[in-house]
Amino acid sequence: PQNPVYSKTTSDWRTHNGIDIAASEGTPVRAITSGTVKSISKDPMLGNVICINHIGGYTAYYCGISDTPVVNEGNIVSTGDTIGYVSTVPSEMLDESHLHLAVMLENEYIDPETLY
């Protein structure tokens, strides 16, 4: 996931730490596995971000979430629980609607598709 990709929005090549999962705006975003909501924040490039510490030591960043997340910091979630809804990723606005998912293990980005 750390290979540079071309961004239509910024018209340049950037490192893309994660994967984009095609989904229409308003589609429920579900937890990839059980864990605890570490933080909910707003990032100028990634939009609303829900960070969850998942079992196995993984930390996932669900980016481009609507302004009305379903969870709060400190909530415990189970696999498949709805945590929010797809909105926009400001740095990827010209791309098709999607969820940007980044996952870290031991402070290194990993490919989320290798997990499950």
Report on the architecture of this protein:
By secondary structure, this protein is mainly beta. The chain is 0% helix and 49% strand. It has no helices and eleven strands. It has strands at 4-7, 12-15, 19-22, 28-30, 35-43, 47-54, 58-65, 76-77, 82-85, 98-105, 108-110. Strands 3, 5, 6, 7, 8, 10 and 11 form a seven-stranded antiparallel β-sheet that branches. A hairpin with a 3-residue loop joins strand 6 (47-54) and strand 7. The mean pLDDT is 88.
Beta strand count: 11
N to C succession of SSEs: EEEEEEEEEEE
Distance between the termini: 16 Å
Outline:
globular
Give the structural class. Answer: mainly beta
Proportion in helices? under 10%
The tally of helices reads 0
The Rg value, from CA coordinates, equals: 13 Å
Unreliable spans:
none
| Proportion of residues in β-strands | over 45%
| Mean pLDDT across all amino acids | 88
The biggest sheet amounts to: 7 strands, antiparallel
